[in-house]
Queue: 4 jobs
Job 1
Amino acid sequence: MSTSACDRMPDQPSSVSSAVPESPIDADHAAFITTAGVSISVGSSSADLLPSITRGIGCRVVPDRLRASVFVVAEQSRDLLDDVRDTRRIAVVFSEPHSHRTLQIKGRDAVVEALEAGDRDRIERYRAAFSAELGEIGFGPLFTHALIDSGGGEVVAIAFTPCAAFDQTPGPRAGEPLAHAK
């Protein structure tokens, strides 16, 4: 028996269910969000459902795809980080500018963490890939640098269990769950 990662409540110990959780993202989706140089928008909301948003500057996905982390500049993301700490809700949109291929992944157990070993290298690879992606559609490296510059400030990770994922590419499949959107 398998179950979605969303079937388990955020504070429920994994030992409560004997079912093996499944990730809503497959290996192709994981590669797309971690290596394709996609634009990353990170959203949350307050307890009163007021939205907050910030730009992500990279992403990490564990090999079984049951946990993802997005990196954000703390100073530029205060409202969002407060909302994540209060509600643990997160929605992340990954969009490839030249093709408009877009995925949205949601979680409801998000936590703010320090970067892990290797994350700074992931962020630098993301910057290079995103700069190359924007270069393909005519934006120079100065524009990209200004768009995703951390200004030397603190960068944190927001880790979460992907519990729902959707194809958000404009077109007839927009809004379909990823399991049915291939």
Note: The first strand starts at residue 2 and ends at 4.
Job 2
Amino acid sequence: MQLSLGLRAALLSVLLFVLFIAAWEAAVSGGGKAADLDPEYAKLMGATAVTGASAMPGPGEIGLKLWQHVTDPFYDNGPNDKGIGIQLGFSILRVLLGFGLAVILAIPLGFLIGMSPLVYKALDPYIQVLKPISPLAWMPLALYTIKDSNLSAIFVIFICSVWPMLLNTAFGVASVRREWLNVARTLEVGQLRTAIAVILPAAAPTIMTGVRISIGIAWLVIVAAEMLVGGTGIGYFVWNEWNNLSITNVIIAILAIGVIGMVLDQVLGWFARLVAYQE
């Protein structure tokens, strides 16, 4: 009996996961030769430095710590000790605010650029100059002018989310088939109705591609931005746990970042499938 492609892929994924866990466990379980360390330094670094064991936590330790976070994700023991659920909530909120502002600006402006060659030629030099700038390069200017770390992080998310949506929207609108526009013109359909009934549905798949790219970049950037601004958020959580030498929590945060990024992309992918069409 021939197994389906999906089932074979799932079995292969499980096999790769098991092999990865086994290799990880084997790599961290073997004891090595203890380093000849200064006693005070060895005391600071803990048993791993004295015994020669790996300082990297194994899968079992990660699993136990992950279960603690899952069962109590919203505890709050002060500014530097909050549950991972709270930290992720702050990060998601900042991303959604910055991303939402970018949607409000980028899609209408991209529409205008795509429909008007004059506006495209006028704005293209500014776009080409601003687009390659790293979002984090705006952070010092944002902190200086806005004087609020939370709003500065939201601004950085906004600025990094704008360009993919703007360019994809402009490209999608400009690529709408001339025949469809000519039919609308022949039927004397007004410009606004043509934009809503003809151009928007035709350009929607390309626009959604830009939206998915933007949310991915926004989620990447928020981690680095929160490392800089501090306070709350999953980026700050990673940096704070690194300062506490808790590699276990750093690994768990990395896993959480990956899972949330996948969920955001899947949600937008579902919207993209809703607006997709076949000619």
Note: The mean pLDDT is 88.
Job 3
Amino acid sequence: MKVRPLLLALSLTTALALPALADEAADKGLEIAQEADRRDTGYHDFKAELTMLLRNKQGEESLRHMRTNSLEVDDDGDKTMIIFDQPRDVQGTALLTFSHKVEPDDQWLYLPALKRVKRISSRNKSGPFMGSEFAYEDLASQEVEKYTYRFIKDDELDGEAMFLLERDPVDENSGYTRQLVWIDKAEYRPMKIEFYDRKNSLLKTLMFKGYQQYLDQYWRAREMFMENHQTGKSTLLTWKQYDFRVGLEDSDFTTNSLKRAK
């Protein structure tokens, strides 16, 4: 079969253009992620209180009360500590996370009943955190370098203009093949994330609601609702009592401080 010269020329032009379009989408996706990160840099540290509402497929609920501390680290990811205050069966349980830009995150879990600090292997980072629909990797700071990016399209969510990006985890131990992220164009805040599992099936959706601004710059969501589409379970994190620049230091984020956090 003969291929007409004009069709052959068009095919070659299209083939040559595709890599350029892919590079353009990757560059634009990365630029949006970097701008979102730039706008959230410089707060130094904060404390906050929050509740975790667990709901199973039958609609049964359980509520936990927690505190969190966070510290920015120059040229690396953040350090965070989450401490459970109620109910009594989890009181004193605490998670310490050292996020990193390139290397796998370091995480330790203190279990007061055993009086033992357990290191969370990077191979287990996709596991559920304390029975919630949040994985350990979801609780680490989302550094730009943890993903590769692709701009999908301009979109709209609840009447607001959005960037829709796809980001693929660089870490081979991630429980996700890819994530779709909706970022509002006005303030570069994440509004919705869809998580796809290792079989590339939709696993979870995270929705952010009730953003409030602190120090005239930093936006924090009042609610983060994670729905698991494969199990029918959900987890609602409700944040309150944000206090920024309270003087937290590296010494507040050690495995010894993890034991003393209750």
Note: The mean pLDDT is 92.
Job 4
Amino acid sequence: MTTHVDSEATPAPLEEFLNRPATLTQRIHSVLHRQPALSPAIVLVLAAVVFSLVNERFYALQNLSLIAQQVAVIGSLAVGQTVIILTAGIDLSIGAVMVLASLLMSKLVADNHLPGAVALLAGAAVAIAAQAVNGLLVTKIKLPPFIVTLGTLSVFTAITLIYAKGQTVALQPGNILMWTANTVSVGQLNLTNGVLLMIALYAVVGYALRYTAWGRHLYAVGDDIEAARLAGISVNRVLLSAYMVGGFAIAVGAWILVGRVGGGDPNSGLNANLQSITAVVIGGTSLFGGRGVVVGSLIGALIVQVFVNGLALAGIDPNYQVLAVGILVIAAVSVDQWIRKVKS
């Protein structure tokens, strides 16, 4: 009887370990793990405050309008890149597909005199088909996404250059393909339709990831593909759908690009592949899949543009802008590794 009372009064060491209060570091880690977009949001706010102190022109509405317009193309691509990276994949060809689709849209109107709406649908179909090729190579032949998209990067780039024949295409205002360049003014804040279209894309994909079975399956596949397969999820179908959703996001980006450059240019978007990956990584999405939110990629794209814009206003050498982006990427991946390590 006496022994029984003592065992109840004295907690076991294991119970003490499990019930120990969380340290400050553990609490911070827990919050960052639950809210992947929180740390990039803090960085964005701090960067905006610092650059506004360095140069008061930073907060001018005209400058904020310029930042929003410059981020529209990469922000749209980042949506597709996020969906693919959430499955633990990656797409190195996303920029090349966008340029191909934008050139096709422009040439069908300028050279073949097709209506803009038909050209838009044709460009979107090509973008989705190109991404379907990537998805099929990953799911059916079981090739690593990095290798597949590295190869198709060269393929799609070559097709674009051959199709362009070294020429650019200029479109006249009034065509539906140029609609994304039209501006909507709110006071002194001027936003293009392209920016509004990008925001709508984030809203739709963000809703699908958060509230649909497809979104939950996507996270499950990215977190542990074997566990997802054992749970009855059609892994290949989910992976293929991720690439095709990426194709839809590319089509939106191509439409915005046409409006931004005024037509088709085979040399536009040369760095779009890496810039979209940079936005996703800085935005808190894990390169290992299964963790991240699409709005974080928008914040990541804004961080890059805010740094480039703020350093330019401060009169800093453009080479340091590249250096700053590189440091941001390393810092973002380091934070992600820390979160995953503490979780394990």
Note: The first helix runs from residue 2 to 9.
